[in-house]
Specification:
heterodimer; A: alpha/beta; five-stranded parallel beta sheet; 4 helices; B: alpha+beta; Beta-Lactamase; 4 domains
Amino acid sequence: MPPKKKILIIDDEPEMVEGLQVFLEDNGYETCSAFNGKDGITVLQKERPDLVTLDIQMPEDTGARFYRNLTKDKEFKDTPVIVISGLPGRHLSTSHPYAVFEKPIDKEKLLATIRQALGG
Amino acid sequence: MDDRYRQYFDALPCFLTVQDRNLKILSANRAFRKAFGEHEGRCCYQVYKHLPEPCEVCPVERTFRDGQLHQSEEVVTTLEGRELAVVVYTTPIRDDAGNITAVMEMSADITEIKHLQNQHKASRELYRLLFEEVPCYISIQDPDMRIVRANRLHRETFGTAYGCHCYKVLKHRDEECVPCVVRESFKTGQVTQREEVVKALDGRERYVLVTAAPIRDESGGIQRVIEMSADITCLRQLQDKLSSVGLLVGSISHDLKGLLNIMDGGIYMVNSGIGKGDMTRVNRGWEISLRSMARIRSLVQNILYYAKDRELVLEKISARSLLTEVCDQVEPRARELGIDLQRRFDQEPGEFDGDITAVRSLMINLLENSLDACRVDLNKKGHQVSAGFTDLPDAVRFEVVDNGIGMDRETVDRAFSLFYSSKGAGGTGLGLFIADKITKAHGGAIDLHSEPGKGTRFVVRIPKGLPQPGMNACSEA
């Protein structure tokens, strides 16, 4: 059996993280999490996830900053990022996340997108 | 009279008479005879004024008395009954011995001038009325921006003193504004317009649309500019209200979406937990669902407080049981966020008259605000929020203190304004606005001390006695 793929969930609402974690683990993924972009970078470097789901609107702009840091990092710039946003049509102007989801998320669609991003 | 003089006398375009001591007309020129008819044997006052007796003050009599030239203004009536305004000059006529034998009286018709004068006076009065009573602020300024005149509304609203600088009176500034419409008008000679915010004598800000127009003197130069300001505060307030409704819809739907997402996660845990027979998961999922439900409820409550004026429904409230209930409600979320929630309650129950739904919303808003202030503070480990009350003789004093991110000066100043949120996407900007409204509706006061990086302290003081009847839980602030 191949090793489980790991997903880093970043969201400033702990209960949001918890729900997503349970759902993704039920679907065969390993998860790790951070409640802000600053901690997100630390977890990213420690856990080396295969994919990141990122709430882009977090206090002090740490969501967007996290994304910029990740895309600048040679090691992680190819890690797919799925942006989760509370505002419709809010995309990152300078970069291109793998996908953008608007809250409330359609879980099945999210799962399908994650599978596609991680190659099945 | 010499014939030649007789000719001149007759040809003069004013009324000329020569009168004796009894004011009897001895001689009159053609203009006089034409206008007033025959004068033979009649007196001045009879012919000129159709009076039985001499006038009280008579320039002819005065000239007879003192030998001087005199002048007066009179109203006389012509043969046709037309009234004429005349200016009268009198000159003595002396014999060889120097005695005054007669007085010559010349009356020039100034009816037209009088008429113009009256018209001028009326239009001045009209202009004055317009200037004084027009419902906008008007001032006339010199090239130094000093107010040389101001209308009543201007003086009453701003306490205007003549000679003061416009920027001092309207904006409490020590320097000229940049840009300045009056300066612009002096420079370009054009009418200029601009929106400004000025401060009235009562300290309230007024939004005004200012129009400046040059006043030209006879040579075309501009020594004065008139500044007319229409008060558009009501319009601005309406605009604010309308745009705030738009903002409200946006930010509330954003918040709702987030909370629905959390609830969705909770429901998933309940469902999947049942499928797996995992009761721990079911319970946890249920807990998350209930909590997001409670947060949605208080969000909706806030919308209701904002949307309509609610009458207070008063009852005896114990601060102790109120705070216990509220703390119980927010405690799980505090724990989740790693925040230590402390209760600092008085020994006394702290009873007061209040609307329980409103006061509950008030306390939840303050506590949620403090939890958020801790949540967004990434620079400290170990956050505390405390909620407490003190039973005072005539009031209950609530205190909510956190060691979260704190607020800078600007944020403190605007904390209670509608839709001002320093939390970026995390706040609707509704919570503290509602908290302030509810406190005021209870006749209380809310106070805020904060320091960036250190934390925030809210102090709410609500009087124990009944607020005045007819106060709304959500009247306009």
